[in-house]
Write a structure and sequence with these properties.
Belongs to the nectin family. This protein is about 5% helix and about 55% strand. By secondary structure, it is mostly beta strands. It folds into two domains: about 120 residues, Immunoglobulins (Immunoglobulin-like); about 100 residues, Immunoglobulins (Immunoglobulin-like, Sandwich), CATH 2.60.40. It is elongated, with a radius of gyration of 26 Å. The protein binds 2-acetamido-2-deoxy-beta-D-glucopyranose (4 copies).
């Protein structure tokens, strides 16, 4: 989280002035479903730390789940503490991230003499879509009105996937629909429509699936062959 590094500087200034200060920073951490996520605020000098408390915001309430002091080491306050690993630098690691782990975590660092650094970090979980590309199987007669020639589905993705098509220089249009699932994932379906000219039978078209605002902007391409055009 490079954006948070300025907070170290602020704290350093604060330390040098021996002032009372309260620094708040907000950040976002991305993690891929099933990976180990490290939630880290900033590099702080452990020697300055009097206390670290980790909190989680659930349903508008803030709950402290781990507290650390140099004397006691990390202490569990709720069951949530068993879900995470307290690391030597004061950050936490969540192994095998699930959708339930998504949310706001807060690290409150109290330092000597009287400085408090509060970091609010949103853990955003990324779920890769399961992609299916299928040619339309229902036969279409050669004609001059657009018909469905293929379907691309990006199932249960988070954040939702965007679908685009590549058809060479042939004109096309799409009908897109989204289904939101209870667990926060979204299935996107894109129906490819083209004018059913005989020349498009047997050509390959490519579906391009892209997830943005995620840990990795992964773009996946799948090719499908149009096969449903028939002559009268
Ligand atoms: C994730 O954490 C688990 C448990 O702490 C560990 O066994 C595993 O090796 C870690 N995986 C990676 C990719 O670091
Ligand atoms: C990770 O979590 C999933 C879902 O809870 C579970 O099915 C899987 O076995 C877990 N993997 C590991 C390595 O713990
Ligand atoms: C989310 O819900 C959808 C629809 O029920 C399901 O297909 C998908 O596997 C779920 N994803 C996770 C990560 O639990
Ligand atoms: C279309 O794709 C198929 C399978 O990927 C391939 O075998 C075929 O040669 C491609 N056809 C053209 C015209 O590129």
């Amino acid at each position: 989280m490079r954006s948070l590094s300025w907070s170290s500087l602020l704290l350093l200034l604060c330390f040098l002035w021996s002032a009372t200060c309260h620094v708040s920073v907000n950040g976002k951490v991305y993690a891929i479903l099933g990976s180990n996520a490290t939630i880290k605020c900033t590099d702080v000098t452990l020697a300055w730390i009097r206390e670290i408390t980790w909190q989680r915001e659930v349903g508008g309430k803030t709950e402290s789940f781990i507290t650390y002091t140099t004397e006691t080491g990390p202490r569990s306050l709720t069951w949530l503490a068993s879900r995470v690993k307290f690391l030597a630098d004061g950050s936490i690691e969540i192994p095998n991230v699930t959708l339930d782990d998504e949310g706001t975590y807060k690290q409150v660092i109290t330092m000597l003499p009287s400085m408090v650094l509060e970091c609010k970090i949103y853990l955003q979980v990324q779920v890769f879509p399961i992609i299916h590309v299928v040619p339309e199987l229902d036969p279409v007669m050669v004609g001059c009105l657009e018909e469905t020639v293929g379907i691309c589905i990006a199932r249960a993705a988070k954040p939702p996937a965007a679908i685009d098509w590549r058809t060479g220089d042939l004109a096309y249009s799409v009908e897109e629909s989204e289904t939101r699932h209870e667990n926060g994932t979204v299935t996107t379906q894109s129906v490819l429509k083209m004018i059913p000219e005989w020349k498009i039978n047997g050509i390959n078209v490519t579906c391009i699936v892209l997830q943005e605002d995620a840990m990795s902007d992964i773009q996946t391409e799948r090719t499908v062959t149009i096969r449903n055009i028939h002559c009268k």
